[in-house]
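fyi for ur records
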Amino acid sequence: MEKPKSPKYIQLASQLEFSRLVSALERVPRVSFMHEHDGKKILAIQMDLLKERPIIYYVPLDKNGHYLAYGFKNGKEETSVVDAVSEPTKLYSPIVKIKELPPSLRQHSDEQLEKYELIELEDLASLAKISHGYEEAPFPLFSFPRGDKWLIGVFMNFNEDGPSYFCHVTLDSEPTQPFLKYSMFNGNAPVFTDNLNEHGYSYIKIIKLVETHPLIHYE
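which gave:
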C-alpha cells in the first residue's frame, strides 16, 4: 500500500487574511482547525490537493477561543477570536481544536514535492472569468511577492489526473485592497476594492501569503 503524502503548510500574511479566506463571500463560513505546527498554535484549513498531497494554509494563533469572527466596521474589515456568537452582522468560523495531529497530517521536509505549473493570463478580466462559475462562490485569488513584482491568481486543474496550475496575472505592486470587483454586464475592467456593496458587481476575495509561494515552477 502506497504511503500517504504528508501535507504542505503555507503561511498567510495575517489573521485577517485567514479570516477572509474562511468567511468572506461564503454562504456558510468554513471550519477552522487549531493545532500545533512547528511548536506553535496555528489556525489551519486545507484548500487543495496537489497530486494527493494536502495543501494547508495557516496563520499563527495568539489567542484561544471558540470562533473566528469576521465582519466590517466603518467600511473596513475586522477579525477577532471570540468565545461566543454574539453579533448578527458578523460571520463566525467555528474553531475545532485538535489535541494531537496524526502522522499523516504532519509536514515532513524530506519528501520530494510536486509543484504547480504557471499559466500567465493577459489581464485581470481573464482572471475574473476563470475564477468564476465552478462553485457557489468563486475560487479565492492568492497573491504574493516574487522579486519586485506581485503575482495574483487561482490554483486549479482541468482534470484530476493531470497537472495542477497557477493561472495568474503579474502586477507591478502589491494589491492594497482585499477584493477584486468585476461585472459581466458593463464591459469595465475589474478593479481592486474594499467595498462589497456596489450594486451590479461580483466580487472575488484576495488572500495574501507571507512570502513567495513555495510550490510553483517559476522557470
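The first strand starts at residue 8 and ends at 11. thats all i got for now
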